[in-house]
Structure formats: structure tokens, C-alpha cells
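Researcher: Let's do a round of design. I'm pasting the C-alpha cells now; please hold your answer until I've finished.
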């Protein structure tokens, strides 16, 4: 548990967070904060809008199609390939209108991306990974208190299988390496386990299903065994580190590989800590 500092030990020169604990923490927010706290600030605190990255747009449209399929399986509705393809097309267009514009280079690139997505969705429906049974839950949002966390943990699971295995779907451009995928998505996978355990369930596995956008789409399931106590405590500590940093207004550049595709490089280059700005003004 954290104690909020009365005066933050590190000030940033940015309009501060309210100086209180966030309402909750999600694995996505924590991973984003830990990846680069300043990018997190620009996206989620200052809410600076940028053109939607193409991969993000396509991933959301594919996700909507899979959601339509799983909901149809759950409700016993129409899960035909034609209906799911229509759900994909609708989402692809609606997202451009509601969350766009998307940073397409030109109309040809948009069309290629649209067709890539259609192929990947069809590849999933044809694959052995496509859900044949009735899921336990689809798009389930849980919010639970977890020992060691100052705020509730939230998580939105794409799918929970009948045996309580949570499944998260990822769009990818290349086939994933199993160990790297589990390590990279550890906060999310273990958070889902913590949430399910807090409602009295024991997932037998923590699964990722990658939809790989190769010419012939590949659908790859990566299974992680449930986390032991060490893994759980490590993830709780990472989540709490993000909560503490957000609550104390610790937002600063963390240069690394992700700067190559960061959309906030201009804003980042203008950043200076408040202490420096105050010294210069004195
Ligand atoms: S350019 Fe790099 S250091 Fe700066 S905000 Fe983006 S990811 Fe962070």
C-alpha cells in the first residue's frame, strides 16, 4: 500500500494529475505507464488526440468481429462467416468515423489493410482455435480489490472458456515466440488470474490467441500455466508501482525502442521538469 506524498518528490512541469489515487488500475494502463510514463501522460492524462495508428485500427476491427462471433456462440445466434464478416466491415468503418482519422498513407493502403483483416477473421473462423462450445463469458469486465494493491484492479477479458481459462486475442504481423509472448503479456495474463481467483474461480491456463496477418493467416494459441505466488506478487508489485507513479505525478521520458513509433516525439522534446523551469524563471 502506498502513502501519497504531500509534495511529490519529482515534479514534471505538466498539468498535474489530481494528486489522488486513480479510481482503479487495469493491466493495460499499468503496462502503458511502465513502458513510458510520459507517453502515458500525453495519451491518458492530457488526452492529446493523434491520428489512430493503422495497426491499432485494424486490431480493433478484428477484435469486434471476434466479439460478434463469440457473442453469437454464447447466445446461440447467427455465427455464420457472412455475418461475422459484416460485423468486421461495420466496425472497420464505424471506428474510422468515431475514433479516426486513421493514419493511412493512401486509399490503397486502407483497402489492403481492410482485406488483410477480412482474411485474418476468416482464418480464425476456419481454424481449430475457433470456439465451438458455448463460452462461459464474453467481454467480461471485472473490478476487484486485491491484497497489496491500493486501488481496485479492473480487467476486460475477451473470452472466458467453460473451464474458466481466460483468452485474450492479439493481432500480430509475425508468428510469436511462446516464451517472449508470455513474458510480454505477463501483467495482463496474471491480472486475469487474480481477478478470476477473487471471484472464487481457478483458471487451469492463461491463454493468448495470436491472429497473424501473414499472406496465409496463422492462428497461434500460446498457453501459460497459472501463476505461482512469486509471479502473482511480482505482477501486483508492478501494478502498484504504476498506481504510485500516477498518484505522485511521476511522468517523464523513458527513451527506448518504442520512441521509434511514438506519436508524441514533439511534445516529449519540449518536456522539462518543473524544477528546471522554476529555476530559469527566478
Ligand atoms: S518519444 Fe519516447 S520517451 Fe518520449 S514520450 Fe514517446 S516513448 Fe516516451
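Researcher: That's everything. Go ahead.
Model: Designed sequence:
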Amino acid at each position: 500500500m502506498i502513502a501519497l506524498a504531500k509534495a511529490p518528490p519529482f515534479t514534471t512541469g505538466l498539468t498535474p494529475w489530481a494528486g489522488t489515487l486513480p479510481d482503479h488500475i487495469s493491466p493495460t494502463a499499468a503496462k502503458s505507464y511502465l513502458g513510458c510514463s510520459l507517453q502515458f501522460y500525453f495519451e491518458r492524462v492530457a488526452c492529446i488526440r493523434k491520428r489512430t495508428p493503422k495497426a491499432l485500427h485494424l486490431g480493433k476491427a478484428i477484435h469486434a468481429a471476434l466479439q460478434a462471433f463469440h457473442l453469437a456462440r454464447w447466445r446461440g445466434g447467427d455465427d455464420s462467416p457472412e455475418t461475422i464478416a459484416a460485423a468486421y466491415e461495420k466496425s472497420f468503418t464505424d471506428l474510422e468515423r468515431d475514433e479516426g482519422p486513421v493514419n493511412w498513407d493512401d486509399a490503397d493502403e486502407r483497402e489492403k489493410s481492410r482485406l488483410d483483416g477480412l482474411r485474418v477473421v476468416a482464418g480464425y473462423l476456419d481454424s481449430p482455435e475457433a470456439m465451438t462450445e458455448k463460452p462461459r463469458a464474453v467481454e467480461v469486465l471485472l473490478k476487484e480489490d486485491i491484497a497489496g494493491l491500493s486501488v481496485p484492479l479492473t480487467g476486460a477479458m475477451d473470452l472466458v472458456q467453460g473451464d474458466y481459462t481466460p483468452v485474450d486475442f492479439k493481432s500480430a504481423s509475425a508468428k510469436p515466440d511462446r516464451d517472449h509472448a508470455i513474458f510480454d503479456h505477463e501483467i495482463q495474463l496474471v491480472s486475469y488470474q487474480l481477478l478470476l481467483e477473487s471471484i472464487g474461480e481457478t483458471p487451469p491456463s492463461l491463454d493468448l490467441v495470436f491472429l497473424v496477418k501473414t499472406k496465409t493467416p496463422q492462428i497461434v494459441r500460446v498457453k501459460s500455466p497459472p501463476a505461482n505466488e512469486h509471479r502473482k506478487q511480482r505482477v501486483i508489485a508492478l501494478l502498484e508501482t504504476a498506481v504510485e507513479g500516477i498518484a505522485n505525478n511521476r511522468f517523464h521520458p523513458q527513451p527506448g525502442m518504442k520512441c521509434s513509433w511514438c506519436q508524441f516525439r514533439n511534445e516529449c522534446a519540449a518536456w522539462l521538469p518543473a524544477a528546471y523551469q522554476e529555476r530559469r524563471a527566478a
